[in-house]
Amino acid sequence: MLNGITRYFKGIWYALIGQAQRQSNRHTHNLKAVRAAYEVLIRVKQEDVQNYKQVIGQTIALIEQKKNALRGVTNDIEKLEQMKAGAIAKAKNTAAELRDSGASAEEIEQHPDYVRHITSYNDYHSTLEEKNARIDELKQDIGRAQEDIETHKLQITSLHRDLNKLKTQQSDAAREPKGNQ
After folding, report:
1. 3-state SS assignment for residue 181
2. 125-172 per-position pLDDT tens digit
3. What kind of fold does domain 2-180 have according to CATH?
4. Which end of the chain is more exposed for a tag (fewer CB within 10 A), N or C?
């Protein structure tokens, strides 16, 4: 009976040792899978970093386009203000000339030259309002784009941290089985 109990415990012992050996073999086989999984994760993070860099580059190009448009609209506004001032000055000169020639206020307001100058003034004024609204819109777009760039830079920094962490974890995971064997 003692012999049977001994064999029973030896069987359990060998089963445990065999199980442990199988676990060790499984772990070394899984090592390749773990390395491959980390490499995939690292590659994905690197692609994300590149994508964010491309987005930043595109956003910078967009900002430059908006700044060029802003300069163009600003130049247009300066020209329109000069033309608006010229139109009102001509309207005043025309009104003064007509007043000096004895025309009534109603005749002055209906005179074709005066009407043309006042219409030009009103057109320039409404165009200036549209251009000023466009400037505000462009400035807001530029501000939003710059905020986006800052957000993307923070994302890149975070991705770099994650990438370094993954590389450290990969090297730690690669060392663990060697220490266990």
Report:
1. coil
2. 999 999 999 999 999 999 999 999 999 999 999 999 989 988 888 888
3. Helix Hairpins (1.10.287)
4. N
